[in-house]
Amino acid sequence: MSTVLPVAQRGEDILRLKAARVADAEFNSDWLMQLASAMLVTMLERSGVGIAAPQVYISKRVIIVASRPNLRYPDAPEMDAVVMVNPEILEFSQATTLGEEGCLSVPNERGQVQRAQSIKVLYHTLTGEVMESTFEGFPARIVQHEIDHLNGILFVDRLSA
Ligand code: ZN
C-alpha cells in the first residue's frame, strides 16, 4: 500500500538538480516499483496529470504521464498512466503550441508555455524494456514538462512574456 508523499515546492533545491539516471541494476527492483507506485498515488491525490521523481524528493529520472480531459484541455485524451524511466526526447516537431500549464510544485500559479506540438520519446519501463512512443498535443506537453523537472527546470522558467 503506497502512501501519499510530500511534494517539493518551488524554491527547494531538489527541484533545481539534474536527476540521476536509473541504473540497470535498479530495474525491476522493489525500490523502483515502490517509488513509481508512491508517485502515482501522490499524483492522483493532488489531481495531477503528471509527476516527476524530484517532486517527491527523489533525484532520479522517473516520470509519470497521465493525460485526461480537463477544463483547459477538454480534448485531451484519457490515457492510462505511463511510467517512463530515463526518458529522452529523440525528436521535437517544428510546430509549437502555446498552452496553459500548472505544477504540483508551483501551487496557485499557471502560465502559457510554448512547447513542441509533438515529440518522439525513448524510455524504459519499470522492468527495463525499451519503448519508443510519439506523443501529440496535451500528452506531449506533459512529457516535456515532466522531463524538464529531471533537468531542474520549472514551467515558470519558460513563461512567454
Ligand atoms: Zn511540474
TrEMBL record:
It catalyses: N-terminal N-formyl-L-methionyl-[peptide] + H2O = N-terminal L-methionyl-[peptide] + formate. SUPFAM superfamilies: Peptide deformylase (SSF56420). Gene3D superfamilies: Peptide deformylase. CDD domains: Pep_deformylase. Fe cation binds at residues 103, 145, 149. The active site is at residue 146. One of its GO terms (molecular function) is peptide deformylase activity. Pfam families: Pep_deformylase. Keywords: Hydrolase, Iron, Metal-binding, Protein biosynthesis. Its EC number is 3.5.1.88. GO terms for biological process: translation. Binds 1 Fe(2+) ion. Its cofactor is Fe(2+). InterPro entries: Peptide_deformylase, Peptide_deformylase_sf. Belongs to the polypeptide deformylase family. PANTHER family: PEPTIDE DEFORMYLASE (PTHR10458:SF21). NCBIfam families: pept_deformyl, PRK00150.1-3. Removes the formyl group from the N-terminal Met of newly synthesized proteins. Requires at least a dipeptide for an efficient rate of reaction. N-terminal L-methionine is a prerequisite for activity but the enzyme has broad specificity at other positions. This is Peptide deformylase. It comes from Acinetobacter bouvetii DSM 14964 = CIP 107468. The gene is def.
